[in-house]
Amino acid sequence: MKKMIWTGGIILVFFLCLAIFAPFISSYDYKEQNINLRLQPPSSKHIFGTDEFGRDVFARMLYGARVSISVGFLAIAIATLIGVSYGAISGYYGGLIDNIMMRIVDIILTIPVLFLILMLIVYLGPSISNIIIIIGLTSWTDIARIVRAEVLKIKNFAFVDAAKLIGLPKKIIIFKYIILNISGPILVYIVFGISGAILTESGLSFLGLGVQPPFPSWGNILTAGKDYIHTAWWLVLFPGIFIFLTVFSLNILGEGLRDFFNPKLKRE
Amino acid sequence: MGNIIEINDLCVNYRTQNQEKIYALRNLKLIIKKGETVAIVGESGCGKSTLAISLINLLPENAEVSGSIKIDGKEILDKNNKELQNVRGEKIGMIFQEPGASLNPIFSIKEQIEETIKFHKKISDKKILKDMSINLLREVGIKDAERIYESFPHQLSGGLQQRVMIAIALSLSPEILIADEPTTSLDVTVQAQIIELLNKLKKQRNLTTILITHDLHLALELSKRIIVIYAGEVVEDGYIKSEKDAEHPYTKALFEIIPDVIKKRKKFKIIKGELPDMKKIYERCNFSDRCNFVHEKCREISLELVRADKNYVRCLFPLKGRKK
């Protein structure tokens, strides 16, 4: 399980570095077109080749990483914020409040998320901030349920009673005594959530409803490439590999963390 | 001295999932004077812990309460959580069994003690907080207080954890200390130390101490006044030092089952039978099925707590005082 955390972590950090240091890694501009050099195969000058406008694919991939990864992180930050507060309130207060709040979640869960997202984007217009907000607002239900279940378990622990006994206020009890004690499962969800959000964003961009050209994202590089799949394989292969590796690294990191926080597996 | 705790007609019922009622406390009356030490003794399921958590109004949601509990003359059962924050901690400190589970595993001792003081006393100066915490830890007999102050709960032994719990309970200088089975999960030598510590603290701070235990022996160590609870009722209340002072057959039976290591009995003595069905209220003496001195009349009427010889006893035929 430590291997999984390390492998996942290293691949993820590698992609994060690519995104952060994009201008230092590639000297090309992601917007710069050069019709003379269109659809060049990978070479020492353009290591991932060029696209139909002669733009450097490697540079576009690096800047695309910024978009894809930040969409993933920010969307899940929103989802986590909403989900954790919602789940904690529902679980802590229990009774009727819990019942109503969880039925609302059940109702939301019956709506097919992808269609909801598509509809909202068509309505609100596809911009990066809209995509982040919409993915964030549609993916908090899982974490709300996880947090609620954990809170139900933790709130009966003696130390929570002890905190009440000494007269600590609810906000300290909920935050310091309950939420911080379930930070493990929350972290695991965050990691899986980010990989899901990156996939959703790539899917949206692929459908043309995500990040709009000329801004690159892994999804729309892939879309642009699909028209040339028979002649310019590099246009689909590299974004595909990048998406695959990022999601894969997040998934094994998440799985490793899940095992790490599982007390039953700790004896190894 | 005045009364610090007055409990009148306290009834607590728990609703079970199939809508049955468990009558955990039945018309309980109890008066505790300021500075007094009281031990509440009874077997599992008789309502001891329910009584303890009612005193700070922290009963679970499925509990129904009626009656009145006054602390320093103020009713606490109708207060809301915000008002109770000042009673909890500042007026009453409480320690439980299993000190390990009562400490938040992810914070150091330092943070847990200071949190409480910070919130209640609105002190935020780090140096004052540290001095207060270290003094508290020293007061509960922790020698290397500086090191313990920085540690996390799982790094401490059970005895140390319980001392830390006592320190937290005392951090707001409460007038009342409730100890709910404080030594149950500790080994015997540590038990003795904790009881000694409680004895010392109650004298130094003039605490009103309520010890809740199933162990009569332990109760006798700490307290002169013993309150015996059976099936949610007080059956005997008085100053008891030894078996001779027991006036209720149940108290006498409790004395008889204290294991005697010197005489080497072959078998542990037990009280035969078990608690009556707590879902029902009987019109008779609740202990009658297990009593060695039972009389036909015992099964016919329910009883009140009346003075027998020296103690208040809920029995038709007490062992002392009234004639049979």
SSE blueprint and pairings:
The complex is a heterodimer of chains A (about 270) and B (about 325).
Chain A: H1 2-20, H2 22-25, H3 57-93, H4 95-110, H5 113-124, H6 128-138, H7 141-154, H8 158-165, H9 170-178, H10 183-206, H11 218-226, H12 234-260
Chain B: E1 3-15, E2 21-33, E3 37-41, H1 48-55, E4 63-71, E5 74-75, H2 81-87, E6 92-95, H3 99-102, H4 109-121, H5 126-139, H6 145-150, H7 158-170, E7 176-180, H8 188-205, E8 208-213, H9 216-222, E9 225-230, E10 233-239, H10 249-256, E11 306-307, E12 312-313
Parallel strand pairs in B: 3-8, 3-9, 6-7, 7-8
Antiparallel strand pairs in B: 1-2, 1-4, 4-5, 9-10, 10-12, 11-12
Helix pairs in contact in B: 5-7
Q: What can be said about this structure in brief?
A:
By secondary structure, chain A is mainly α. In chain A, 71% of the residues lie in helices and 0% in strands.
Question: Could you explain the architecture of this structure?
Answer:
The complex is a heterodimer of chains A (about 270) and B (about 325). With about 270 residues, chain A is mainly alpha-helical. Chain A has one domain (about 1-25, about 50-265): MetI-like (MetI-like fold). Chain A has twelve helices and no strands. Chain A has helices at about 1-20, 20-25, 55-95, 95-110, 115-125, 130-140, 140-155, 160-165, 170-180, 185-205, 220-225, 235-260. The model of chain A has no long low-confidence stretch (mean pLDDT about 85). By secondary structure, chain B is an alpha/beta fold. Chain B has a domain at about 5-225: P-loop containing nucleotide triphosphate hydrolases (Rossmann fold), CATH 3.40.50.300. Helices cover about 30% and strands about 25% of the residues of chain B. Chain B has ten helices and twelve strands. Chain B has helices at about 50-55, 80-85, 100, 110-120, 125-140, 145-150, 160-170, 190-205, 215-220, 250-255; strands spanning about 5-15, 20-35, 35-40, 65-70, 75, 90-95, 175-180, 210-215, 225-230, 235-240, 305, 310-315. In chain B, the strands form two sheets. Chain B has an eight-stranded mixed sheet, with helices on both faces. Chain B has a four-stranded antiparallel sheet with strand order 2-1-4-5, covered by helices on one side. In chain B, α5 (about 125-140) packs across α7 (about 160-170). The longest helix of chain B has 18 residues, at about 190-205. Chain B is globular, with a radius of gyration of 21 Å. The two termini of chain B are about 35 Å apart. In chain B, about 40% of the residues are buried. The chains are: A mainly alpha (about 270), B alpha/beta (about 325). The interface of A and B includes residues 164, 169 and 181 of A.
